[in-house]
Design a protein that fits this description.
Order of helices and strands: EEHEEEEHEHH
Shape: globular
Number of helices: 4
Number of strands: 7
CATH architecture: 3-Layer(aba) Sandwich
Bound molecules: zinc ion
CATH class: Alpha Beta
Strand content: 5-15%
Largest sheet: 5 strands, mixed
CATH topology: Lysozyme-like
Radius of gyration: 17 Å
Distance between the termini: 15 Å
CATH superfamily: Peptidoglycan recognition protein-like
C-alpha cells in the first residue's frame, strides 16, 4: 500500500474577493447531500483553510508522519487524495464572481508562505502544486495563481516544486538515468 504523503496541493474556495468563508461552510458545501445543495462527499476537500485575515483553521486533523492515514484524507483532487494534503485560501474569484483572480490578502500570503515552508521542513521530499497542475484537473483555474512562480518567489527549493510530467516525444530518446524513488512517486500520479 502506498499512502506516502507526496503532495501538498493548494486550492482556492472559488468565492468572490473579500467574502469571508468559514470552515463550517466548507464542510457543508462538501458533505451535505446533493439534494441539500452539497456535493455529497464523505469527507471535506481540504485539511486546512486560510481565512481572509490570515487565520488558519483545521478542517481535517493530521499527524506529523510521512503517511496519509484513512482518517487524514481530504477529497481535494480525484486520484491524488491518498497521497496528498490539501490547503485552501478563501477567495480566488473577482468581486463580481465572474473571473478567476488571485485575491490573496497580505495576511493570507504570509500564512500560506509559513504553511508551505513548515510543511516542507516536516516533509522534506514533499512536492507542492496548485490544483490546476494535478493530472485530473482538466481546465480548472484553482487556485487562480501560478503556484510554481509564487513558490520560487518566496525561495522554495526547486526540488519541492511540482513539475508537470513532460509529454513524451515521438522520437525515441534513450534515457539511462538509474531508477530512483522519485520515479516511483511520479508514476503514482
Ligand atoms: Zn481546487
Amino acid at each position: 500500500m502506498n499512502n506516502k504523503l507526496n503532495y501538498l496541493v493548494i486550492h482556492c474556495t472559488a468565492t468572490p474577493e473579500g467574502r469571508p468563508v468559514t470552515k463550517e461552510e466548507i464542510i457543508r458545501w462538501h458533505t451535505n447531500p446533493v439534494n441539500q445543495g452539497g456535493r455529497g462527499w464523505n469527507r471535506p476537500g481540504y485539511a486546512d483553510v486560510v481565512y481572509l485575515n490570515g487565520d488558519l483553521a483545521n478542517i481535517i486533523p493530521f499527524n506529523t508522519d510521512d503517511f496519509v492515514d484513512q482518517w487524514e484524507i481530504s477529497n481535494g483532487v480525484v486520484g491524488l487524495n491518498g497521497n496528498s494534503r490539501h490547503i485552501v485560501y478563501a477567495g480566488g474569484m473577482d468581486d463580481q464572481n465572474k473571473k478567476p483572480k488571485d485575491t490573496r490578502t497580505k495576511e493570507q500570503l504570509e500564512t500560506l508562505e509559513t504553511y508551505v515552508k513548515y510543511t516542507i521542513k516536516r516533509h522534506p521530499k514533499i512536492l507542492v502544486l496548485g490544483h490546476n497542475e494535478a493530472p485530473n484537473a482538466k481546465g480548472k483555474a484553482c487556485p487562480s495563481f501560478n503556484v510554481g512562480n509564487w513558490l520560487r518567489s518566496i525561495g522554495v527549493p526547486e526540488q519541492n516544486i511540482y513539475h508537470k510530467p513532460v509529454e513524451e516525444k515521438k522520437e525515441t530518446v534513450v534515457i539511462t538515468t538509474p531508477s530512483t524513488e522519485t520515479n516511483i512517486t511520479e508514476a503514482e500520479a
